[in-house]
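Dear support,

We are seeing what looks like truncated structure output for some complexes. This example has two components. We would appreciate it if you could run it in full and send us the complete token output so we can diff it against ours.
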Amino acid sequence: MEIIKVENMSFSYSKEEIFKDFNIVINKGEWITILGHNGSGKSTLTKVMIGLLKKETGIIKINGIELTEENVYDVRKNIGIVFQNPDNQFVGSTVKDDLAFGLENLCLAHDEIEMRIEKYLTKVNMLEYKDKEPHNLSGGEKQRVAIAAVLSMEPEIIILDEATSMLDPKGKEEVIEVIKNLSENNTVITITHNLSEAILSDRVIVLNKGKIVLDGKPLAVFKETEKILSAGLDLLPSMKIANKLAELNYQDEELKGILWELNSKM
Amino acid sequence: MGIEFENVNYKYDKRNAKYAIKNIDLKIDSLNEFICLVGHTGSGKSTLIQHMNGLILANSGIVKVSGSDVKKTRNINSVRRKVGMVFQFPEYQLFEETVEKDIIFGPTNFGVSKKEAILKAKEVAKLVGLEQTILEKSPFNLSGGEMRRVAIAGVLAMEPDILILDEPTVGLDPKGQREMMELFKKIHQTTKKTIIVVTHDMDVVSEYSTRVIVMKEAEKKFDGLARDLFLDQKLLEELNLKKPTYIKIAEKINKKLNRNYQIGCLSLAELIKEIVKGE
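Here is the complete output from our reference environment:
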């Protein structure tokens, strides 16, 4: 079932055309990764998709409802976004207050608010930090709180825009673990440069100059080495090895056969 | 001459038992070293590098830069000029109307004439891979990677003996990250100056470093060659560090295909050499 559908969308920043007649369908329950070099249009695409930036032409449908200026705020209630910088997303003076802020804006009953705070902090493994001040948390902990705050609004679609790129390796692992869990019940869109994160998702699309140049299962996409390189991305390490060995004309079928498995748990 | 630490200790809160850095002895030459400084968040890396140019003064112990004690020196600016520091996201610190003005801000503050500083700006812009035409542009109309290069050029323009960079590749895409590391390699090769890079990326450590320093819980736990660090399984576990990609891959191939590649390959090129040689 389609949850987001973009048809013939065009968008420009002042005079620079970013998208022209762009199409994409995202299915319900999918975990989709958008890859592309800086400036390829990844963030712009997600912002246009949810009406944060105004498209020039085309149709965007969320859950079958066409996005218009009148309904954009209602439709967006169904979408949560986590951004790159863990320090820029806090409003509350404690972790708990931070979640409560969004929930009070939804005009929920007190009990319901308490219940959701408990539920979603548990989900990201941060319940014991509920009375802590956000600025005392590590980067990974901050991002997990930001994710909990987004989840507590119970959106169907969750977008993570380079949510792990500023974290240290431990923080990255913590957040990726949380994303993996989310993807079981939600539609998740991640924008990332981290190939080991992308490889876990259901579907990868590669953007270059505002066009989709690759779209498919992660491994199938990563095998398209020429297109990956021309999109300004890095190859998976196993692919680099395969390429080098081919250049040297080195035959080793046994090794070739297992190279893919080497990526599986990178 | 370089930087020397003798039994250096520092606490952010003296009433607290927790040290930010503890018992640090360290000697860094001002030439020919490419040092990667690693350790988990909160291990003391940033505190350590801030001691190197007098931004933080030790509670006890001695820090010497070019032979003079940082605490006793009357001219802390000369220390800061010798040890150039590029902070995380340095592009946020750009502020001038043009790139050229931004780059010459440091040198002119240190008393270099404007004319000389402009010549220097042209030179460092070239070194960091910026087009000369960019010098007249506003730094705020540049891409993220370009802005970061401008900020680095601004530090290089002060002609430091040693260059320290705190996580210089964070937030860049993989291509930008590689280009940035290649830039430091080039600066290192052309100027011979010692470069210290704070990083979490073990692939950067294995490919670029001539020396690795590992911090854990305020103490220096390792100081030596990348190969020695990455081949010491027990130490890696103790320091909670991962192995670089190509070492992991070599181990997996050995295990799966029952082969005997030596596992100390620090880069793709080394691994390929090992595979091809094994024929």
